[in-house]
Amino acid sequence: MSDDPTTRKPLALVTGASRGLGFAVAEALAPTHHVMAVARTVGGLEDLDDRIQSAGGTATLAPLDVTDDGAMQHMCRSIHDRWGGLDLWAHTAIHAAPLGPAQMIAAKDWELSWKVNSEATRRLVAYVSPLLTARAGRAVFFDDPRAGQPFFGAYGATKAAQSALVASWAAETQRTGPAVAMLAARPMATALRARFFPGEDRGALASCADEARRLLPEILGRS
């Protein structure tokens, strides 16, 4: 057996791992999984790695943009070549466009929302699915239903498209795998939520760490 410590634990890929719920989910998984953490923000990934290592866990950091097709292909090929597959994929990467009336959505905000929230999800489903199938793995996503709410046009529409795609994938793989789940987190004190509700009492919101711990059985499929 290999003495590489990263091969001794199940492998969890967390996309959007540098802050918020993704950071907390990666940290919550680290005691039982080797975590491959993907995000654009190098500093956030390094902070995550420090916390995981201080608790005795291991992580592989991948400072990549989920909208970069070549980078995602290379990452998934590297996972295949090094580990042979994935046990878990938790997708938390999201873009929050500025709120505003539908007729005033800027083209650049719409395009980036679509690239991150919808197109990157489609691409990753295609690339990650074989890796999960190789290990009878599981994919989890996190719902935030804003479609149709006033001023949420760009975020609500592109997040709804992501949710619809995930629901179809889940229905298609019920018998064949991989297992696919869409989970609902409670309102959390994240930077994303602060952009949407700047005057909100953040003391009444859940912490990302608490939500990650609460959702961990569902993330692992043990609820």
For this structure, the CATH topology is: Rossmann fold
Number of helical segments with 4 or more residues: 7
Structural class: alpha/beta
> What ranges have pLDDT less than 50 throughout 5 or more consecutive residues?
none
What is the CATH architecture term? 3-Layer(aba) Sandwich
Question: What can you see in these coordinates?
Answer:
- The protein is an alpha/beta fold and 223 residues long.
- The chain has one domain: 3-Layer(aba) Sandwich (Rossmann fold).
- The protein has 7 helices and 6 strands.
- A 6-stranded parallel beta sheet has the order 3-2-1-4-5-6, sandwiched between helices.
- Helix 5 links the parallel strand 5 and strand 6.
- Helix 1 packs across helix 7 and helix 3 runs parallel beside helix 4.
- The longest helix is centred in the middle third of the chain and has 28 residues.
List its salient traits.
7 helices, 6 strands, SDR_fam, globular, 223 residues, Rossmann fold, oxidoreductase activity, SDR family oxidoreductase, alpha/beta, single chain, NAD(P)-bd_dom_sf
In short:
This protein has helices at 20-29, 42-54, 69-83, 107-134, 153-172, 191-196, 208-219; strands at residues 11-15, 34-39, 59-63, 88-91, 138-143, 179-184.
